[in-house]
Each structure stands twice: as C-alpha cells, then as structure tokens.
Amino acid sequence: MARKDFLDIESLDSEEIIPLLDQAVPFKDLFTRSVKKVPALKGKTVLMLFYEPSTRTLSSFEVAAKRLSADVIIFDVPHSSVTKGESVRDTIDTLQAMRADYIVVRHRLSGQPAAIARQTGASVINAGDGAHAHPTQALLDAFTFREVFPEMERKKVLIMGDILHSRVARSTSLILKKLGVEVAFCGPGSLLPQTQFRRFTNYEEAMAWGPDVVYLLRVQKERQDAPFFPSDREYHQVYGLTDERLARIAGEGIYVMHPGPINRGVELCDAVLDYERCLISQQVENGIATRMAVLFGLKPTKS
Amino acid sequence: MNLFLKGGEVASEEGAPESADVWIEDGIIKAVGHLAVEPEGARVIDCTGKVIMPGMFDAHVHFREPGQEAKETIKDGTEAAINGGITGVVMMPNTSPAIDSPTVVNRVLEQGRKCRIPVYTSGCITVGREGHEMAPIAGLKEAGVLMLTDDGDAVPNAALLRRAMEYASDFEMFFASHCEDPQLAGLRALNEGEVSYRLGIQGTPALAEEICMDRDIRIAHATSTYLHIQHVSSALGMETIRWWRDERGAKVSGEVSPHHLMFADEDIGDYDTHYKMNPPLRTREDNAKLLQGLKDGVFRIIATDHAPHTEFEKSQAFVDAPNGITGLDTAVVSLFDRFISQGEFGWDLLVKRYSAEPRRMMNLEVAEVVEGKTADLIVFDPQGETTFTKEFMKSKSSNTPFLNQTLKGSVDLVILKDELLLER
Amino acid sequence: MSLALDESEITEAVTSLADQIFKKTHEGQVDLVGIRSRGDEVAERVRDLLSEKGVSVNFGVLDISLYRDDYEHLVQNPKLKSSAIDFPIDDARVILVDDVIFTGRTVRSALDAIFDYGRPTSVELAVLIDRGHRELPVQPTYVGKFLETKRLDQVVVRLKNTDGEDAVELT
Question: Which member of A2, A19, A26 has the closest CB to residue C82?
Fold first, then answer.
C-alpha cells in the first residue's frame, strides 16, 4: 500500500528507502533528454505552503512538480492572512477548496506538517519543519552518497556543525544509519546534543575517526535565541573547513557535502566549492530527481 | 436524607481499610461499625467489596473563570471534581484578570458558592502575576484567599519574592511556588533530552525547575516562611525539598501530580499534545523516584494541576498548543488503576495525600468517615471500570491522555453533607 | 487456462516479425525500441535475427510507466525502470516493439514517450501477438501472430529472459 504522506525518515524502514532511491534513478535519466517533462501527474495540483523563506527547496520542488506535469500553486504565505493571526488549521480548511492533491509544507514549528497531514486528504510532504525533519533532503543526500559509494554499508559520514538546530542533521543521520552507514557528529559542545551517534567536540579527533564524507551544516543563526559560540571567525577557525584542512581532506580523498545555502568563511572556505570531491551541485540536481520520485510515489486519499 | 451504606471497607489515612457499615442521617455520620439492625427508614445501599473513604481535596486546579470560560467554568470544574470523587478544590490565580485583588476574589468565591462543593482560591503574590508589584496581600487574605502563588510562572525577581514573604509574615498565609527559571526553561514545550532532540523542539531542562526551587526555598527559609513547592516533576528537585526539610529544618512541602508519577516524555510519541504540560513530563526514572518520594512522605500532597484547554487549542502544532491536561475526572481512578490496584501503595496513602493533608495545609477541617462528623465521603468500586469518554467527563475540556481509555475502578457515590452528589 | 503458443510457435512468430521488417529495411539500418517489459525481450530477439542478416541495428528500451493514463485506478504507482535509448531519436525511423497489442493504450503512451526523446522521421509498430479489441485507432505495421480472444480474456506472455520459459497462455 502506498503512503499518503512523506513526513519524516524515522517512520521509514530501509525496505521503503531503497525502492525510493531506485525510483529516483529513472527520473534523473530524464534530465538528459531534450524534453525533461513527463505527463505522470498531468491534471494534478501541487500546493506549496512555505511558512519559512526558502529559495532552494521551494524551487527544487517546483521544478520536480512541473517536470511531472503537475500544476503548481505557490501560496504566498508572508502576504496572506496567516500574518493576520489566522491559524494554520483555518488556512488549511480554506485551501481545501483548491482541491490540491499534494501539499508541500515548510514551517518553523516541528510537527506542523504532521498536523496538516491529519487534517487533509491531500498527500503532505514535509519540506522542513523546525528542527525536526527534512526528509527529502535526507533522501537526496542518501541518493548522492550512493552514487559515490554504491556499497554503502560501513562507510563513514561525519556531520559537522550546528547539530542542535539542524533538521538536516536529524533526517540525514537517520537515513544513512538505516542504510548501514556509520554516522558521527562533530561541533561545538553548545551545539552538540547527546544522541545515539558518536560525538566529537574536537575536529582532529573526528578526522582521526576516518570519515569517507564530511557533511558540513549551515550554521543557523536565525534559530539561535542565545549565543552558542562567540563569533563566526572563531567558529571558522575551530570547526570550519579552512584552507589547510581542505588540503588534508583532499589528500585523503574525502568527499564534502553541504545542504546549502552555504556561509562562506564560517563553515567552509571558498576553495571548497572548487574542490573536485565537493558534491554540492550534484546534491542540488539529485534533489529534483528524488523529489519527483517522492511525488510520484505518494497516493493522496480521494475526498 | 437517611442512608445506610452496608458492608463496605472504610479507609482512613492510617492503616488498612476496615469493614464497617456507615449510617448517614441529615448530613451527619451517625454510626460507623457493624450495626445489628438496619436503621429504620434508611435507604440501604449495598457496598460489599467497595471502599468508603473521605471526599478528596484538590489543592491545585485551573478553572479559567473569569476570562477563559470556553475552556472551563467554575461550575463545570466542580462538576468534574464531583465526577472524580473530589469534594473540595483550591483554584489557581492565573485567570484573566488574575486573582490579585479582593474584587476578583469575591467574584470567584461568589461563583463558587453556587456550586455543589466548596471552592477555595489562592491569590497572586504579584499584581497580574507580572512579577513587578506586590499584590494586596492583606486584602486578599480578608477576602478569603488561602494561599499565595503566581502559579503559571515563578516570581522572576528574587528580591520581590523575599519582600513579599517578609511583608506577609503577619498574615498567617503561606506561599506556594511554581518553580522555573525562565531563561533556562526556554520554550516550555517538553523535557530536554532524547525525545526533544528527536522531535526537534528546544527542551526545558529539569535544571530550570531545580535551580528555582532551591532559590525559593532559600528565600522562604531565610524569612521563616512556609513554602509549598507545586507540581514537582524532577527527582533531583524532590531531593532538594527533602534536603532542605531534613537537613536544615526548612518549613517546606512538596506536591506531585498524578501525571508526573505516570507519564514520561517518551509518551509524547508523534507530537501528542495530551502529554504537553508545564513542568513537562520527564523520564521513567523520574516517575519511579517521585513515586518513592510520595511513599516516603517528601510530597505532602497529591494535586492534579487540572488545566483544561479546548480541543482546537490542543490540536495545534506541539509548540503552539497550550500546556496542561485535565485531571479532576480521572485522578482517583487513574491512581487506583496505576498504583493501588498494583500494590504500589494503599488506600491510606491516597486518603492522607489527596484528602487529609491538603485540607490540613489549607487550615480546613479534615474530612473523616467517623461517627459524629459531617458526611463528606465517596464510595469507590475496585471491581468496576471507567471509560473516560468526552460524554463521561464533566470538565468542559477533554485534554487528557486518558481520553477514551478504560481504567480499573469506578467512583460510585459522592456524598457531601445532606446531599448525594453522585450516584452511579 | 490454455496454451495459445508454445516455444516453437513463439520462435516462428519472432522469425516472421524479423522477416517482415527485413523486407522493408531502408539502406540496411533499423532503429528498434522495445517497450518494457517483454517488448524489450522481443526486440532483442528480432535484433539478433536482423544482425545475422547483416542489418545494422540501433537498439533501445523504453519504460512507459510515466506515460500511463490509469494511475487513478492503481493502488500504488508502478515501479519505474530506466529507459535506455542511447542513439538519437531525431530523424530516426523508429520501430516500436511490444509483446501484445490489445486496446492500443500502451502504444499511445509509447508514442508520447518517444517524442519526448526527439522527432523521429517515422514510427512503426511491431508486435509479437495481436489479440484484437482495440480502443484506440492504432494498428501494428508488423504482426508475428494473430490470436482470437474474447474481450475479458487475459493473454499472458512468458519469455525466457524475463520469466524463465517461452509460452503464451490464454486465461
């Protein structure tokens, strides 16, 4: 039975994840054709409900939906009545009238997409909620990782940066673990909660662990209500991918990933973007294919 | 009214229940014991296998009136209490407006007098619970306030709390503290730990509660004030109370709610707002230690922190949904189901901690099933069961984890003075 | 259930297809595109026979799952596989190959799909079996075998590489 919603990684098992990754391959193949579009979701409506600003994820979903021939409505949240105090529940009731088949939600509150999913028969896709989950990012990360390492078992990924506030860290670590990849976290103690994963507060010790991929996170200043580290400069020196560190990483053939958008001079130096084993643009391309696979794989409930 | 409760087990705050018949006439307990003949003209109620005990008393309820009557009114709240075998309550002052002046106290107590059980109230320490100015303590006392608290929040300014305690020393009124350091507490949505990480919500560490507990007890101790610590959620917080009481002789007592004995943060599952309250549910280890503390006597009383919220409010995203769950309808049955029926503690503990001690703490007459006393008692059927549907519960709200669950035990009769308040 | 074609009859039908196509080849060049699944295996066999005759064959596989018109009626969307067409479709003379033609809907989907790869000069259709009951105005150019069926009959084709044996059954 197909899923109605795609809300988190926690509730997926590897028997569901691997077919999803497999499913994304033919979608990626389409991108080399002269016509990149297929009629799979012709006549369907995808509603983008972004309560938080986003350029990358929003346009990635938009491209994915349009390549499946769906009609895309971008609900302009900042200018709508939600800023006048209308609750999300009321907004969804109103939007039901548009009869969207898929609703892609991003919200600052953890759990909001799940609440919406309970309220509507449309398929709800979580495009990031609070610090909780970003499951399509996790899927594209796993897809990109598998392209580089087809045998994923026992490979090592070091996720580095603001673990505490990162929904990407949560979802990507979980999907990798479910696929047999070893995951560890590295970052300043103030941003590194106790979790099931190995934890390094020291960069050198983390690198000595022998990661195959260093996954850098954006330092999310907008989610920080009290300072967690003194300055960007100090962060870059202690936990950033500096030029010297990049040289060593290059020497060891380690890959670099990042969910974007990047902060140059904070978590990474400019040179990382030209590094041959930097997978950032590959991640972006794979984001479209994996999101097409997610949209295609879900089944809205008929109302 | 002339009632003869035949063949029950009478529970008190000391020892095991003893089998006895209870005869009530005109609101007075005429006899307790084995009567040779049934009193003439009395309605006989067979209580075989049932437990007869004093009516319970809840010293921590939020009745939302005035201001938020959509959640609960004083009338609905007292009906929920009766439904759960509770025959007296103390309201918290975080209504809107707050209970911080004789005018509001009078209004609340006047509504209370229209109800079938006595309603008492606490009053604010600071005006509007805002933590800036001292509330008119003497006026509140005169209007009938039994206890001072800014429940819902701590008094943020330690100097103000100290002065209020010093000032109030002449009025024979005691203080109660909601303990929480607001900066450490942060979002106040759930406990900080693995669950908060998994759900991606900033957690409130137990530290936020413990540090404030220590602060408030120190201030009370320094000013020779009796301080009652409300809704203790963490084991270390409980140890703080124990230490001050036993090692320093501080006049301090603790309160524990049924939910902090029964539930932990992991029960939140997939953002179930019926497990969202403040202070938050901690861990299973805390549950076990708090239960031990209740048996040891660190907690003077059990109180529900009955906090009704509408279905709409609780259906919002976890962070947006308000804190609190209802408790009056469910407290006695759930305590029986989870603890008494499991042999964790006896009826004597329930009577002592949920009937006798809270009344003593409030300087009220203690209800007892004893000859010559005013009738204030309930009959509980351990063989029965209760399903907590919306229809069954009398609270205006149904935000409880027990919603639609069936638990062991049933409150069958509630008698107060000359009135049969509930008969099932 | 009855056996409609056995192994040798299937071989005969494939050979007949290859012969028909060979007669019409232009300048010894054929562009075969098999439709997943089983159309690709039929196309492979035709390719092999044509190659033996010295014909130069371009070979591709088309997955039409994304072009189906019946998602609404499915509990779960079909498992996708990649299409693999590594020769230019622009100006090609494409011969689509499928195992069975029935309503014609698969062919319609395949035509839509193939045009998203480019603009072929012409498209022809080769099928192993024509079982009739068309719902769309689509006719195959080459047919291996005609089969009399009722509308509700099911024609089940099993081929060696895909299913382990060669057989066509009617149920």
Answer: A26
